[in-house]
Amino acid sequence: xxxxxxxxxxxxxxxxxxxxxxxxxxxxxxxxxxxxxxxxxxxxxxxxxxxxxxxxxxxxxxxxxxxxxxxxxxxxxxxxxxxxxxxxxxxxxxxxxxxxxxxxxxxxxxxxxxxxxxxxxxxxxxxxxxxxxxxxxxxxxxxxxxxxxxxxxxxxxxxxxxxxxxxxxxxxxxxxxxxxxxxxxxxxxxxxxxxxxxxxxxxxxxxxxxxxxxxxxxxxxxxxxxxxxxxxxxxxxxxxxxxxxxxxxxxxxxxxxxxxxxxxxxxxxxxxxxxxxxxxxxxxxxxxxxxxxxxxxxxxxxxxxxxxxxxxxxxxxxxxxxxxxxxxxxxxxxxxxxxxxxxxxxxxxxxxxxxxxxxxxxxxxxxxxxxxxxxxxxxxxxxxxxxxxxxxxxxxxxxxxxxxxxxxxxxxxxxxxxxxxxxxxxxxxxxxxxxxxxxxxxxxxxxxxxxxxxxxxxxxxxxxxxxxxxxxxxxxxxxxxxxxxxxxxxxxxxxxxxxxxxxxxxxxxxxxxxxx
Length: 516
Ligand SMILES: Nc1nc2c(ncn2[C@@H]2O[C@H](COP(=O)(O)OP(=O)(O)OP(=O)(O)O)[C@@H](O)[C@H]2O)c(=O)[nH]1
Prior knowledge:
This protein folds into 5 domains: 21-103, no CATH class; 113-123 and 132-158, no CATH class; 166-230, no CATH class; 239-352; 364-512, Reverse transcriptase/Diguanylate cyclase domain (Alpha-Beta Plaits, 2-Layer Sandwich). The model has no long low-confidence stretch (mean pLDDT 85). The longest helix is centred in the middle third of the chain and has 78 residues, at 208-285. By secondary structure, it is α+β, with helices and mostly antiparallel strands. The protein contains 15 helices and 7 strands. The strands form 2 sheets. A 5-stranded mixed sheet has the order 2-3-1-6-7, sandwiched between helices. Strands 4-5 form a two-stranded antiparallel sheet. The structure holds guanosine-5'-triphosphate. Guanosine-5'-triphosphate binds at residues 203, 358, 391-396, 399, 404, 407-408, 411, 433-434, 503, 507. Guanosine-5'-triphosphate binds next to strand 1, helix 12 and helix 13.
């Protein structure tokens, strides 16, 4: 019995010793790990470095963990403080990068590509991040963009004598704006040939004096078109005035004729009354039937004459009235025809001013109008609305290799194909150059992706042939969905970024960019 107890005690002691050894080994591993970890944190904060060094020494010495606890708690407070400082660092880094990027964006005359890169970068900078390190690639990129801008500015400064280089970018922008304006001037029918000539001249590289000439010609067309419109409106108003004057004259003369007749009628009525009175008076005085017969017959002849005269007057009045009414009706008919022609002309002009002359699909002005409307609908019904930008790939090559008229034909065919393959509620416009913009109401991005890919494939399969060469042409799409936080500009910019990504990814692509 005593032996058993001793054995059990020995076993318990052995187990206890094994447990203690395990604890000790684990404590050593943990102490080493904490030591290494504390070394890795070195350099973040001096106070923290000192505390961690002390902790390492105590751990190496094997100091009792309980004694170390207050020290560990104080260090942990220190770490919390550092953490909030770290968060503040992230925020200030993000803010700093965003400010620097926006400042660069405000620079005038930035090349298009650089502006796009910058917009893309600012989008990335706006994303939340857990560490300051995550911003380092953005910082590098921003520094590169700053370098590029400085170089571009330097180049401009160096080329003082070369006006074409100095104003190259501005000229290109003016030329694009002028092309858009010309597209909206489609209503100047009489100047269509001249407009087309200016539009084609804007496609090549323009020296500044040629651009100015194009501007002056366009202004000339606008002025003569306004003059023509003014003259036509004046002509219509004069005709209207004429017609109203003649109607007024007819009414006045018919009124005065009718007053005349009324006066005559009054006199006749009085005459008839008098004749009747007289007849009754003399008939009382008649002494014989023969005398009465004679008197009545006389008076009846006089009364019948007066009545006939009265009837003639009435007929005259009716005829006069019919004549006046007839001439008024004719004038009003003429006026109605003129007003109809004028209204039709205005409606046609309205339609043409919203249509792109080359592709015959809506133009940018029409898009702006429709976009506002669709956004209002979206705000009311909250049904999904997608915005898509499409751009023909390497379009410049088509112009350069086969001429501008081949380029024009390509644009027409592509516009037609896109339009034909949209639903009636979708909307497409030529946004400018080789760029198209589309609106897809009540469409989710997932469904849109399929439809855009089908469109993309359809365009890729069009058998274009120039100078007997088969030329495959592709198109890239950038799409986004309108959200609660969006303005019309921000959704457009996102679609533009998606399009840019599609180009960067090799073209002939559909890229969707939902709001982050
Ligand atoms: N024929 C024709 N060309 C146009 C018209 N409007 C713009 N362009 C031309 O379209 C070309 C657009 O070229 P870029 O902006 O360099 O783009 P891209 O060659 O299509 O290349 P990526 O878009 O990068 O794939 C320019 O050469 C313009 O002159 C037009 O109405 N008719």
